[in-house]
Amino acid sequence: MTFRVHVRVMPRAGLLDPQGQAVEHALGSLGFAGTQQVRIGRAIELELDAATADDAAGRARQMCDRLLANPVTEDYELEVEAR
Amino acid sequence: MTFRVHVRVMPRAGLLDPQGQAVEHALGSLGFAGTQQVRIGRAIELELDAATADDAAGRARQMCDRLLANPVTEDYELEVEAR
User: Fold this and answer.
1) How many CB pairs under 8 A join A and B?
2) pTM, whole model, 2 decimals?
3) What is the ipTM of this complex?
4) 20 to 30 A from B42, CA-CA: which of A37, B20, B32, B78?
């Protein structure tokens, strides 16, 4: 069965996020007042074959640990949906 | 009221995504067989003050149209949650 996995990799809370700060500043300059806590990470989508959704989530978690996320500076979240 | 907005900005379907292709190839080299359709975009989180969730979503959509996403090459999705 094929599953579609959405991964969100974000800079860990408390770590500086210069890209997010730059965007927050730019939004203020464009007139979007009251925007705070802007943080920018990566959104990754992929499809994989697995027997169950749990199996797909487990493999996707391995991919994050080994390649997709930096375990020192980033956190990730997964969503798995059947296709 | 403060709302937290999660934005996912992805390369439009059909457009080449070299970063996604590189990751797909790297996953294969690491032994994750059967991974396909890897696409890489940006995950953006921000907080904003608004009267209602619909109002927050509308403003976040304006931010995407004006700054956060490239309307020619990217699509975006929003999720709004109350804090």
Assistant:
1) 97
2) 0.93
3) 0.92
4) B32
